[in-house]
Input
Amino acid sequence: MREYPLSRVFQLLEPGPTVLLTTAQAGCANVMTMSWLMMMEFEPPLLACLVSSSNHSFTALTATRQCVIAIPPASLAPTVVDVGNCSGAKVDKFTAFGLTVLPASQVGAPLLGECFANLECRVADDTLVGKYNLFILEVVQAWCDSSWPGLLSSDPERVLPKTIHHNGDGTFRVSGETLNLKDHMVKWPECL
Ligand SMILES: Cc1cc2nc3c(=O)[nH]c(=O)nc-3n(C[C@H](O)[C@H](O)[C@H](O)COP(=O)(O)O)c2cc1C
Output
């Protein structure tokens, strides 16, 4: 083992899927890129995500307490990075990047047609927003692109869309090989 700089620790843990977060306030929708998020509960699904208070999206998310988390395929990666490098305060990113907005059913923020999954979310807990910009979201409705039947399958051989995972420096890993370790996913009798 050799020493690793604290300033780069996030690059070891960051590579969850990079997603897009949409909001809408007063008839004005916006979208930002986000890679700092984690699951917290199975059902109802809860997730935690960090939206910096310097982002335009923060204002809308705080005011409306609603958003959509849209999961992009790897083919959308250049757009995802562009979306994360300009602000909705200055640019209509949907027009600028040719993103297709679709109406959500339970929140005012739009779904994104180019994404293979869209999660309609409400803020479930904002007690850590003031200190950390950390929002706890409940997914109240989820959608997936029907052209990816693997998303609803439990077959280990299912085909899933490739996702992008930020290394924290503008490079990304693309999800790839599936390891099927289902036969290990049983509790040891000694541990029951
Ligand atoms: C790959 C990538 C990941 C990002 N992850 C986050 C994140 O997790 N949280 C965050 O607040 N900003 C993140 N950003 C930055 C925002 O997407 C960026 O500040 C964006 O311009 C905000 O847009 P807005 O001002 O329209 O809300 C990320 C940017 C990129 C390119």
